[in-house]
Amino acid sequence: MKRPAADLITVAVPKGRLLQESSALFEKAVGVSPRALLEHTRKLAADAPEAGLRFISIRAGDVASYVEHGAAAVGVAGLDVLREEPRELYEPLDLGIGRCAVIVARPKGAAALPKGVAPRVATKYVSLASAHFAKKSLPAEIIELHGSIEVAPSLGLADVIVDITETGETLRANGLVIEEEVLSVSARLIVNRVALKLHAERLRRLIAALRAAASAGPA
Ligand SMILES: Nc1ncnc2c1ncn2[C@@H]1O[C@H](COP(=O)(O)OP(=O)(O)OP(=O)(O)O)[C@@H](O)[C@H]1O
Ligand SMILES: O=P(O)(O)OC[C@H]1O[C@H](OP(=O)(O)OP(=O)(O)O)[C@H](O)[C@@H]1O
């Protein structure tokens, strides 16, 4: 059924690494590719009335804000982002894409820090890292960075890092080895709580279609 624009459900699709796989899942589930709709244009919103959806193109780290505040009913976000800053959201589905892990890594061959010395930890996951070291009753000095975290130990800025790894290539190339895993990550479907009540049946069908698409594996 083709719906009028005012009746479309808004879906926040992350730019960046999750865009391609998210798009493939939506294409499989509802027959429309948000990537195809949003590429080659500066427009950040595109309607797919045949699917009853409006897709908006949002930075990965901002998707949860849009959905929590109801600017989008549905979105796709990495578990790292969701656990770093917990929000009032439903997380009904593991989409099985964007698999990676948040890890602690240290320079290969580095001597252990003397007992009682707080490690300096470079990370953009300030909250996850603090909680991780607190759980081990290890005091830690957290140094917040926003990218290129892996270079921090070699420059003497930090003793260890807490960051994402997928293939391990960036760690290896920067002389780091994994010490432990903090969180196993994949992307989740997130849903606004009020929208789930307002559009219960339509969202139930969308979630079921995405679940089927996700369990069918990569296209
Ligand atoms: N190397 C990786 N391999 C697999 N998934 C990753 C990798 N790096 C990040 N991810 C996942 O993809 C999500 C989006 O990452 P991406 O690099 O596209 O955005 P970002 O730069 O972290 O966020 P923003 O665009 O808001 O600054 C991350 O939150 C994580 O869940
Ligand atoms: O284990 P790998 O497969 O090498 O992937 C890990 C890298 O991917 C991400 O960085 P990204 O490329 O998103 O750049 P960033 O430094 O801007 O986060 C992450 O922060 C690591 O640096």
What does this structure look like?
The chain is α/β, with parallel strands linked by helices and 219 residues long. It has 2 domains: 5-98 and 186-215, D-Maltodextrin-Binding Protein, domain 2 (3-Layer(aba) Sandwich), CATH 3.40.190.10; 100-184, 3-Layer(aba) Sandwich (D-Maltodextrin-Binding Protein, domain 2), CATH 3.40.190.10. 31% of the residues lie in helices and 29% in strands. The protein has 8 helices and 11 strands. It has helices spanning 17-30, 34-38, 63-68, 79-84, 126-135, 169-173, 193-198, 200-215, and strands spanning 9-14, 45-48, 53-58, 74-78, 90-94, 100-107, 120-123, 141-144, 160-165, 176-185, 187-191. Strands 2-3-1-4-11-5 form a 6-stranded mixed β-sheet. The protein has a 5-stranded mixed β-sheet with strand order 8-7-9-6-10. The longest helix has 16 residues, at 200-215. It starts with 8 loop residues before the first strand and ends with a helix. The mean pLDDT is 95. The structure holds adenosine-5'-triphosphate (ATP) and 1-O-pyrophosphono-5-O-phosphono-alpha-D-ribofuranose. Residues 147-148, 150, 163-170 line the site of 1-O-pyrophosphono-5-O-phosphono-alpha-D-ribofuranose.
Key features of this structure:
219 residues; 5-stranded mixed β-sheet; binds 1-O-pyrophosphono-5-O-phosphono-alpha-D-ribofuranose; 2 domains; D-Maltodextrin-Binding Protein, domain 2; alpha/beta; 8 helices; 29% strand; binds adenosine-5'-triphosphate
- SSE string, helices as H and strands as E: EHHEEHEHEEEHEEHEEHH
C-alpha termini separation:
26 Å
Q: Count every beta strand, where a strand is a DSSP E run of 2 or more residues.
A: 11
Strand percentage lies at: 25-35%
Q: Write down the CATH class of the largest domain.
A: Alpha Beta
Radius of gyration from the CA trace?
20 Å
At CATH level 3, the topology of the largest domain is D-Maltodextrin-Binding Protein, domain 2
User: What's the architecture of the largest domain, going by CATH?
Assistant: 3-Layer(aba) Sandwich
Can you give the mean pLDDT? Answer: 95
Shape: elongated
Ligands in the structure? Answer: adenosine-5'-triphosphate, 1-O-pyrophosphono-5-O-phosphono-alpha-D-ribofuranose
Order the strands across the largest sheet as they lie in space.
Answer: 2-3-1-4-11-5
EC number: 2.4.2.17
Organism: Anaeromyxobacter diazotrophicus
Keywords: Amino-acid biosynthesis, ATP-binding, Cytoplasm, Glycosyltransferase, Histidine biosynthesis, Nucleotide-binding, Transferase
GO cellular component, one term: cytoplasm
